[in-house]
Specification:
This protein has helices spanning 32-35, 54-67, 76-88, 165-176, 218-229, 241-245, 277-289, and strands spanning 12-15, 18-21, 39-47, 50-52, 95-102, 119-126, 140-148, 181-185, 193-194, 197-203, 206-210, 233-237, 249-254, 258-265, 268-269, 296-298. It has 302 residues and is an alpha+beta fold. The protein folds into 2 domains: 12-126, 2-Layer Sandwich (D-amino Acid Aminotransferase, Chain A, domain 1), CATH 3.30.470.10; 140-289, D-amino Acid Aminotransferase, Chain A, domain 2, CATH 3.20.10.10. The chain binds pyridoxal-5'-phosphate.
């Protein structure tokens, strides 16, 4: 759905301080964000014309930049206003909104990251789903990848990053094995996260999710808060492949789609292959939260 003021209905981007159609957004070939994945980013979403938990995404973005010694010349309010403008110019109501800070380019002849001029980019495109089955309840077929996620001792996964070769390798492996997406493992074979999502298992009305080696997803946090408020216990610890195979329900969480059921793991059907009762409750509460003023910020489309 779009509003009357739609100018870039396929998406927009903020590049070099200007708003351009997404198809024209470009970065320098020499930016270390491209050459070395030397960048951090965050993805928020707009649902029915309002940002959801934007403050939390902005907090995580600034925290990531600080840890990586990156900075942008914008205050939180200025950043929020740039993101608003990116969305407003698309006229879209359901939007995937990404903010990025890259290392930029070093001085000519230098390889010193301190000489780099950090760059800021943002873009807004139509909402993206990790999984969006036609009937809403058919679960995703997930493969437990043999691929190990880059260890946290190497790259801190709490800093949202583009080190995705492990994820992409995992995705190809999942397709080769008949799955639709992959969940990666740590050095001990425990599940961590997948391309763009955290994972939860439900057993006897208790939720289990990996505590370490994962991005602390805003959706993950929302699920944990909602589950606790419903009286479900939430165990943040280790999650083995055996545990998910024996779970009553499994679901994934992401800004790109919210709470999404998993129906099969490595070809084995979980429960009846559809969203289970707890998954449905959490999913409904998650979407209901979008209308609460505490979590939403209306886009100013003017
Ligand atoms: N884990 C990874 C690696 C991600 O890239 C993402 C989101 O893109 C998530 C988890 C889920 O985080 P959030 O709920 O904040 O979207």
């Amino acid at each position: 759905m779009t509003t009357e003021r739609t100018i870039y209905p396929h998406g927009s981007a903020h590049v070099d301080g200007k708003l351009v159609p997404i198809s024209e957004a470009k970065i320098s070939l020499l930016d270390w964000g491209f050459l070395h994945s030397d960048a951090t980013y965050d993805v928020a979403h707009v649902w029915q014309g309002s940002f959801f938990r934007l403050d939390d995404h902005i907090d995580r973005f600034y925290a990531g930049m600080e840890k990586l010694r990156l900075s942008i010349p914008y205050s939180r309010d200025q950043l929020q206003s740039i993101l608003n403008d990116c969305v407003a110019i698309t006229g879209l109501q359901n939007v995937y909104v990404e903010m990025i800070c890259t290392r930029g380019m070093p001085k000519p002849g230098s390889r010193d990251p301190r000489s780099c001029n950090n760059q800021f980019f943002a873009f807004a495109i139509p909402f993206v789903w990790v999984s969006n089955p036609a009937d809403g309840n058919e679960g995703l077929h997930l493969v437990v990848s043999r691929q190990q996620r880059i260890p946290p001792s190497s790259i801190d996964p709490r800093i949202k990053n583009y080190h995705w070769l492990d994820m992409v390798t995992g995705l190809f492996e999942a397709y080769d094995r008949g799955g639709e997406s992959a969940v990666l493992v740590d050095a001990n074979g425990n599940l961590v996260e997948g391309p763009g999502f955290n994972i939860f298992a439900v057993k006897d009305n208790s939720l289990f999710t990996p505590a370490h080696g994962v991005l602390e997803g805003v959706t993950r946090r929302t699920v944990i808060e909602l589950a606790a408020a419903q009286g479900y216990s939430v165990d943040q610890g280790e999650l083995s492949a055996q545990q998910v195979l024996e779970a009553d329900e499994v679901f994934i969480s992401s800004t790109a789609g919210g709470v999404m059921p998993v129906g099969r793991i490595d070809g084995q059907v979980i429960a009846d292959g559809k969203a289970g009762a707890v998954t449905r409750v959490i999913r409904e509460l998650y979407w209901a939260l979008h209308s609460q003023s505490k979590y939403r910020l209306d886009v100013d489309y003017q």
